[in-house]
Amino acid sequence: MIDKRFDLAAAVADISDGATVLVGGFGAAGSPIELLHALIDQGAKNLTVVSNNTGSGNVGLAALIGRGRVAKVICSFPRTANSTVFQDKYRAREIELELVPQGTLAERLRAGGAGIPAFYTATAAGTRLAEGKETRRFGDREFVLEYGLRADFALIKCRQADRLGNLVYNKTARNFAPVMAMAAKTTIVQTASYVEAGGIDPETVITPGVFVHRIVTVPNPLQESALVAAGASYP
Amino acid sequence: MIDKRFDLAAAVADISDGATVLVGGFGAAGSPIELLHALIDQGAKNLTVVSNNTGSGNVGLAALIGRGRVAKVICSFPRTANSTVFQDKYRAREIELELVPQGTLAERLRAGGAGIPAFYTATAAGTRLAEGKETRRFGDREFVLEYGLRADFALIKCRQADRLGNLVYNKTARNFAPVMAMAAKTTIVQTASYVEAGGIDPETVITPGVFVHRIVTVPNPLQESALVAAGASYP
Amino acid sequence: MSETIQKGVGWSRREIARNIALSIPDGSVVNLGIGIPELVASYIPPDREVLFHTENGLLGMGPPPKPGEEDPELVNAGKQPVTAIPGAAYFHHADSFAMVRGGHIDICVLGAMQVSRRGDLANWSMGDSDAAPAVGGAMDLVSGVKTIFVAMTHCSSDGTPKIVERCTYPLTGAGVVSRIYTDLAILDVRDGEIGVVELAPGVDFATLQRHTEANLVINRVPRTA
Amino acid sequence: MSETIQKGVGWSRREIARNIALSIPDGSVVNLGIGIPELVASYIPPDREVLFHTENGLLGMGPPPKPGEEDPELVNAGKQPVTAIPGAAYFHHADSFAMVRGGHIDICVLGAMQVSRRGDLANWSMGDSDAAPAVGGAMDLVSGVKTIFVAMTHCSSDGTPKIVERCTYPLTGAGVVSRIYTDLAILDVRDGEIGVVELAPGVDFATLQRHTEANLVINRVPRTA
């Protein structure tokens, strides 16, 4: 019988030093705060984190970075209101940054998950972010070769999961989670609600269970924006 | 006020000779029979049709091919029970065939819709279907370069559409329709049910309205399989 | 070149937004950047239906919520609380950027630091190497959306022209801008020329040219959006 | 080589399917081809939960419906009516093949016309140029699914061996087959060698080799699926 349920600590226990970890969320929306805090407790370091932003305040992803656990960030926008954690590390040359346009980041994750090693895109052609990259003309336009992105783990957040790992999300908290679930060897999800198989209409499943490996139920997840507003820091 | 509703004849009126037309469906499931019959009535010829199969019996896509309207088919499986229409034309050299693996066909359509001119895939590497195609090694594996596929029109079928063109489908009749909607300049959809904006839960929309241009309400669509079982032919 | 514009001359930020709103055809799908572009939505004429896309996964974005009704999981690309209209759809980031990069969005309105005569846009980086750079979705939007409108003040606060012969800041995209809406004029960018579509009240061509580094062409017939 | 197998010797089609079913671990996600592979689902032991994927857009495919309950819009890749289990999910073709091509499906069971010593598979074309060729999803499945099982009769009806030194029919994929389940044996394909994992009752190694063009290796310890 398939049962993907884990408790928080067990779900992240095997994330090893040096692992590549995808972290869902667009700003605070969809950020898997409890999983990130469990990863802080767990102690893995020298991580490569792929996420659209770099966290806010001193909780969640910002706290992971602030504690020196992250060696490299692959993201589109490493600036957030209420957080100087990443910028400080960056200025001190304590963290590496690979800056990727947001759509290219999403597409690279989907490609990684879909078995596509590389694809061409017009995004960033002729700009500094294409320097050193292979380019090629199709028709009258120049395109940049971008590579599929896979990772060891994904940490994502959803609204509801069933026993088989089928997921549905909440509004714009969906953002990167579905493509991150596709791109990770081990996808770890925190869900506000857990239901039996059949509890989600099969027409409305956003992430089919084949992409999900571990489910942690967190009934009332902390909202990053509320934590930051309250000046919280973790731990 | 956005209103994408058309009647059947008007919806297909501007499909011109020589146009490339995507036709949804996997076998009979999801085949937009009424739109295909409207296209037969309309008279366009020398069409390039992109569809997974080539129709069954003497209705729908098989009837369009049988009447000599299709110059070329791009598909993965041009054989269907109950139909020799395509095979006869092929043997008589009256129709051209571009055979594409099914997953590559779906991915080429998505790529076309997503602004990706080309991508690499392991599918077909080392086989006859990769002959003459560019290949490249990534890591220890050989990949084939495949091109995004765009078209003038898509003819697809759905279960429900709202005024803005948001679509939901029925079970495995979904198949190619969402990626075809993305890949066509003009997407024409036949829907069993039409509702006002707000009639579809925004979390469950499969094809957002931005990909849909014309909506024809066909409340009780013919089922290709039933027509074929009854020995029907069109017109 | 650094003569500043007289106070009170030209259009306000809200008037720039209104000028843009009036040029957006009925039925358009539009993506709005941060700053002046955000103001555009409220000036769409009531007889036009325009759908707003936000690249973080929503088509059919509505106005900001009433105070107290904010949902931290319903935000726009600037991470501000928004609402969803009836007929909205949520989707994931790859699907959202497929809309952008696949040419399915009609118009994107963005701020800019510089625009060149050839329509090159610089709006993501000052080029300083100390601070960490951040690009977000800007490069995807300018390369993928059918028509790019720039909304900005004509000059920077010290009077330096932003419409230049050649951008000195790092490019967001080359040859991508179709039209520029500033406090002094509406300008059309085409075939390596910048044409004046409309001058703000109290601004004449000579004044406009003095505040513009690139050469301007007068009396251009605008192309339709 | 073309000596036919004695009637009644070896496993039946249903026993081949059972052999395959018994080797599929609990929790696997499996795609079944047409023919013998279709029979596998009904032999999964009741204490194992195996999820079936059909590439036309369904994960959690159930058994065929009762007569009269067929839904023409709920079919499998062979276009036959099926059902969906509780916990199923529907998705579109690109998402479905992302599962296949991205390595997310554990096992695919396919029929074959030929398998070579190196694991090359031929199962889509006889190579005749008159009839229109058809490939479907076979090339995607063999290139993308983690483990490929072949289910077939050991020889064709005229006694010609199907396990060959080199495929003469056009390839579906090169070096893709992990294991072969026939009426005479279970065979493991690895490192350019075909090893015998198990012989059918009444079949000895010499007999098996006589009906196999490729050289066989005896007493292979099977790798786990």
Give the helix/strand layout.
The complex is a heterotetramer, with two copies of chain A (235 residues) and two copies of chain C (225 residues).
Chain A: H1 8-12, E1 20-23, H2 33-42, E2 47-50, H3 60-66, E3 70-75, H4 85-91, E4 96-99, H5 102-114, E5 118-121, E6 135-138, E7 141-147, E8 151-162, E9 167-168, H6 177-183, E10 184-195, E11 214-217, H7 224-229
Parallel strand pairs in A: 1-2, 1-8, 2-3, 3-4, 8-10, 10-11
Antiparallel strand pairs in A: 5-7, 6-7, 8-9
Chain C: H1 13-22, E1 29-32, H2 36-39, E2 51-54, E3 58-62, E4 83-90, H3 93-101, E5 107-110, E6 114-116, E7 121-122, H4 138-144, E8 147-151, E9 163-164, E10 177-181, E11 185-190, E12 193-199, H5 205-210, E13 216-217
Parallel strand pairs in C: 1-2, 1-5, 5-8, 6-9, 8-10, 12-13
Antiparallel strand pairs in C: 2-3, 3-4, 6-7, 10-11, 11-12
Structural write-up:
- The complex is a heterotetramer, with 2 copies of chain A (235 residues) and 2 copies of chain C (225 residues).
- Chain A has 235 residues and is an alpha/beta fold.
- Chain A has 7 helices and 11 strands.
- In chain A, helix 2 (33-42) runs parallel beside helix 3 (60-66) and helix 5 (102-114) packs across helix 6 (177-183).
- With 225 residues, chain C is α/β, with parallel strands linked by helices.
- Chain C has 5 helices and 13 strands.
- Chain C has helices at residues 13-22, 36-39, 93-101, 138-144, 205-210, and strands at residues 29-32, 51-54, 58-62, 83-90, 107-110, 114-116, 121-122, 147-151, 163-164, 177-181, 185-190, 193-199, 216-217.
- In chain C, helix 5 (205-210) links the parallel strand 12 (193-199) and strand 13 (216-217).
- The longest helix of chain C has 10 residues, at 13-22.
- The two termini of chain C are 31 Å apart.
- The model of chain C has no long low-confidence stretch (mean pLDDT 93).
- Chain A binds chain B through residues 107, 111, 114-122, 138-139, 141, 143, 168-171, 201, 203-204, and chain B through 107, 111, 114-122, 138-139, 141, 143, 168-171, 201, 203-204.
